[in-house]
Amino acid sequence: MTEPELQGSDKNRKLKKTLFAITMGGITGFFGAMLVKEALDSGKFASVGASVEIASLVGMIYLITGLFVGLGSLAPNAGAKVLNVEDADELREQRAMLLYSSVGMFAAGLALILVALAEAGGPVTPGLALLVYGVLAVVAIFTSVKSWKQQDELMRAVGRETASLSYYLMLLVGGTWALLAHLAYLPAAQPLDWLTMFWSLFLLATFIVVGRRGMLNMR
Fold it and tell me: Residue 48: what are its φ and ψ, rounded to 5°?
């Protein structure tokens, strides 16, 4: 096979993989969003507003991401068809790091959802939410540290850049909102809105950093 043919074949492979990953992500995201909507519309939660809905959806993104990464690392042959890796061997080499990361992502998403749904007299009471949140926070911190120890210098650099950028995004978005609210141009953000901003802007920072490094290009 000639060089142009090899390049064309590789391009087609990447395109098929990209389309498959987008399709799987879209389907999973759709059913995840429907699950959130069904739960919020069930009548079990009295005070469901925009803040609760948005926080729950952001938490669901964390859950889905953690689930995909975790299952992909446990089943590398299948995971290599969805996750942005060179092949199944790469997933096997990074299994420990990815498993820790996936558990941390899942714990963070579940924590945000539980806090969002907490209300006095509801299925998730404030006391229960606080207790479970504390446990999940410990799990997320522990797994993050363990994952960091498994990372190479590139991944650690990505992590540092993401943390730095997420801080500045939070300062920009949250700070601007607080300023406009103080000047009575906007309603003040609810406490849950601030938590959602922390979670969502960290995700946005991650995409920006990895995209800037060319790591979003399908391999």
Answer: -110, 110
Q: How far apart are CA 178 and CA 169, in angstroms?
A: 14
From residue 47, give the alpha-carbon distance in Å to each of 44, 187, 210: 9, 18, 37
Distance CA 21, CA 190 (A): 35
Q: Tell whether 134 and 157 lie within a shared domain.
A: no
Total domains, the chain: 2
Instruction: Specify the pTM.
Output: 0.85
Task: Residue 109: name the closest of 155, 66, 162 by CA.
Answer: 66
Q: Where are the alpha helices (DSSP H) in 118-188?
A: 126-150, 153-182
Answer yes or no: do 74 and 158 share one domain: no
Q: Which two tokens stand for residue 38?
A: 């069904």
Give me Rg for the CA atoms of the chain: 20
Whole-number pLDDT of residue 31:
78
Same domain membership, residue 110 and residue 72? yes
20 and 102 fall within a common domain: yes
pLDDT at 183: 97
Same domain, 143 and 157: no
Q: Indicate the DSSP class of residue 190.
A: P
Neighbours of 26 (CB within 10 A): 10
Whole domain around residue 12: which residue ranges? 3-147
Sign of CA dihedral 81, 87, 88, 90: negative
Q: Which residue has the tokens 């990447």?
A: 14
Position 176 scores a pLDDT of 97
